[in-house]
Amino acid sequence: MANQGRTWYLFFHDNEAPKARSAEGTERMRIVTHGLRPDINIKSSREKQMPEHIKKSIREIPNFPKEGILFYDVTTLFADAVAFRRAIDMLVYRYIDKKPDMFIGVEARGFLIASTLAYALGTGVAIIRKPGKLPYKTYKESYDLEYGTDSMEMHIDAVKPGQNVVVVDDLLATGGTFEAAAKLVERAGATAQELACIVELTFLPGRQKLSKYSVHSLVSYASEEVK
After folding, report:
1. By Cβ atoms counted within 10 A, which residue in 97, 117, 139, 210 is the most buried?
2. pTM summary value
3. Average pLDDT over residues 92-116
4. Contact in structure between 205 and 178 (CB atoms under 8 Å)
5. Gap between the Cα atoms of 141 and 176, Å rounded
6. How far, in Å, CA of 180 to CA of 182, rounded?
7. Mapping DSSP to helix (H, G, I), strand (E, B) and coil, where does residue 207 land?
8. Which of 41-50, 113-122, 147-156, 169-178 has the lowest mean pLDDT?
9. Phi-psi group of 5: left, alpha or beta (phi > 0 → left; psi -120 to 50 → alpha; rest → beta)
C-alpha cells in the first residue's frame, strides 16, 4: 500500500510538530497504519477536550442563509492547521481498525475530508456530485429539501460490489443528503459502513432518518437560533 509503515501522530497541542515520542506523560497519540493497533499515550480528560477546540474553530454566521438562522461554517476549521489536523486525526483513529475499503466524499466539503482520510489510511477515495458534473455513466438519487427536491450522482464504478465504504460530509442536518449518498453506494453493490461528518445538528431529525445506518460526528449543536 502507498502509505505502508507511515506513522501518524494524533491530537497535537498548540503548535506542536510531529516528532519522536517523548517521556511518560506527553499527551500524544501515535498510530502506525495498516493493521497495527494504536499505541496510546493520552489523558482521557484531554481527549474529551479535543471536540471543544474543533468547535471553537468553526465560525458562526448569524442570519444565513436566511433571517434567524445561525450557520456553522467549517471553512474556518479547514484553515486552522491545528484544528483541522485534530479533526482528521480523530477520524483516522476511528477507522484504523474498522478498515473501510473506500471513503466517498459528498460535494463539496466532503471531498476535502474524505481525501485526507483516504490518504492517511491508504484507501481509495470516490466522490458524489450534483447532477451533470460527472462525465461517465452514473447512478442518481433524489432527496427532499425544505421546498422541493434535489439529487446527487455517483459513477457506476466508483465503488465495487462487496466493498465497505464510509460516506463523508461536513455536516448532518435533516439527513436527506446522507441518505441519498448511502443509497448510491448500495446501488453499486457496496455497503455503507458508516456515515461520518464533523458537525451534527442534533435539533434536526437527521440521525433518526438515518437509523438503519451507523452515524458518527465529531461535534454537535443543539440549536441554530441566533442568540
Report:
1. 117
2. 0.81
3. 97
4. no
5. 10
6. 5
7. helix
8. 41-50
9. left
Q: What is the dihedral of CA 226, 108, 147, 133, to 10 degrees?
A: 160
Q: How far apart are alpha carbons 158 and 44 in whole angstroms? A: 38
Please report the domains of the chain, with CATH numbers, ordered by start residue: 7-221 (3.40.50.2020)
Q: Quickly count: other Cβ atoms within 10 Å of residue 211's Cβ.
A: 9
Longest dimension (CA), the chain: 58
Cα separation, 65 vs 172, in Å, equals: 16
As a whole number of angstroms, the distance between CA 52 and CA 37 comes to 26
Q: Which residue has the cell 460526528?
A: 217
CB distance 140 to 151 below 8 Å? yes
What the block records as the C-alpha cell of 42 is: 493520552
- 65: which strand partners? none
* Band (52; pLDDT cuts 50, 70, 90): confident
pLDDT tens, 192-223?
999 999 999 999 999 999 999 999 999 999 98
**Which pLDDT tens digit goes with each residue over 107-164?**
999 999 999 999 999 999 999 999 999 999 999 999 988 678 999 999 999 999 999 9
